[in-house]
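User: Batch of two.

Assistant: Item 1 of 2:
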Amino acid sequence: MNKRKLIGPFKQIISMAGLSLKGAISDHQLPILEDGGIIVADGKIQTIGNFEALTKKFEGIEIQALKGNHTCMPGLIDSHTHICFGGSRAKDYAMRNAGKSYLDIAKSGGGIWDTVTQTRKATKEELIKRTTKLANRHLKNGVTTIEVKSGYGLSVDEELKMLYAIKETNTVVSADLIPTCLAAHMLPKDYEGSHEDYLLEISEKLFPILKEEDLTNRIDAFVEESAFSAAQIAPYFEKAKAMGFDITVHADQFSTSGSKVAVDFKAISADHLEASTPKEIELLAKSDVIATALPGASLGLGCDFTPARQVLDTGGALAIASDHNPGSAPMGDLLTQASILGTFEKLSNAEVLAGITFRAAAALNLKNKGQLAEGFAADFIGFHTDDYQEILYNQGNLKPCMVWKNGALVFDKHKH
């Protein structure tokens, strides 16, 4: 058994405990513990309390003493990324900003298919190297749990190559990687059958292997006019549900229909929602589906943000993720994007922080992350400030100086 350890003192601990999963949150509801400490054992939080009181109560306990003023909060959770890929789409970005259309870019060899081509060319080892690099960058920025999608293979063998790469990367990085199968990203250009044929082939040939080899318990699909329609995706999701997979949906990015699919199939989350109208927002709010905003895609494409304020005011649960991918969301900085979304959508600090901690955990169906409370994973981050409001005020420019994963200090800015 791991020896108990007391970490602190922190000027402020923002535990995120006891807050509601759905609806608006005001800043005065945030649980703030002054001059606190955290006791960890076996990778979990044992107790949180006043630092001095804990040192007296647990006399002789090992202490990881901190110098200076720090604010502590749960490790960030990025519930939607595509950080396993080959190549670059810098040319796409330049063309888009120069006024070229999606069709122009696709005709010149860009778009998702370009990344599919580059990812297919990459070896599994090359994908592991890229994914490791990006996961470690996320970790230094305070992200301790990262969802990672396949979806740039678009064949049984190539999707497996990606999912094996994600699984192996998870054994060499400190952050937890949560894999998701996005084989239904688009119809591959080299596939000779119909949309329905492709989805049937994936569900019959790939799904059983995902279960047998424990590669993922999550199935995602891009429900959009340019990808798969609601009618086309229904049998695919029915098969996934019957096999016990969790469902998540790329929904309402450019047109609406995906959010209803998410509700109908009791998906864990519906992600994007930039095109959602009050009708879709209300449908989601009345369900248990987590609405996930992806401000990185809005910044990358230069389009509207997810109506996050409306989601919360309607009573929905709002998570915020980076959508880090080579095409539409190349920045990949969750804290920066979340703070910018907060500015444009008028979200309280509490709502933004909830969206990248415990509400993001809910979007991944994780019950033991996103809050600092007894029994939760000891994943937390420290910032060099005595006021938590500085974190979002600096719009991503104030980075964590320390990151703990399962109670172990895995990043210390002072030593790098």
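Item 2 of 2:
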Amino acid sequence: MSLETLFSLKGKTALVVGASRGIGLAIAKEIAAAGAHTILAARSADKLAEEVTALKAAGHSAEARTVDMTSDESIAAFAAEFRSSTDILINVAGTNVRRRMQDYTAEEYTRILDTNLHGIFKVCQQIGGGMVERGKGGKIIHIGSLMSLLGLPYLAPYAISKAGIAGLTRVQAAEWGRHGIQVNCIAPGFILTDLNKDMWQPKHMYDWLQGSQANPRIGTPADLAGLAVFLASAGSDYVTGQVIAVDGGYTTTANWPFQPAY
């Protein structure tokens, strides 16, 4: 099998949930460029329409759909349309609020968990269940976080949701592997997006990052897209149940001031 065939997504239908901006949009663009008919889904109908128009102008196949991950009715209607036709499901939808644990409101806690975990579980029940029924295999890719692997302060509900995504990944992989469905999770490191750009304004944040990981720069959404295409392709058919960090080495390396004398 040629490299072009191995990583081509031609003839596949891909759902990217949470595709209106940032990581989700970067992944959707590359999935479409790899040949998949790509459905961009999110709450922002106007933004999705703009992005689909741009993808079509570039010669790609794409559609837009709205879905609210906190609404059972919205999820059910969305999933019913694509249950029998989806080859690739990519779950990017997420939200976050950074506070001291004792300061979260009940509404914030519920909204974060519903968007980041509960809604994704419900989408997977329908779309993943459809993959099982079709009997043609499939790919499911979740976007986790560093919080899928470790803990940082002021992220308690978010960390619960992303640790849950890592656990869901492993269980889905174990349960659906016999049906030819591979399930993996990408765990982004420090990626600059609209959701966190204010946090990275102070210079001391960049100074800290440069001393904390092997690759000293902050990541971009585009840094995740190549791995998403790989995990969606036939090239990853023997990769499943993995939580793969794309983090500049943050979870596996550390820097120190020591320099050898010679």
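The mean pLDDT is 95.
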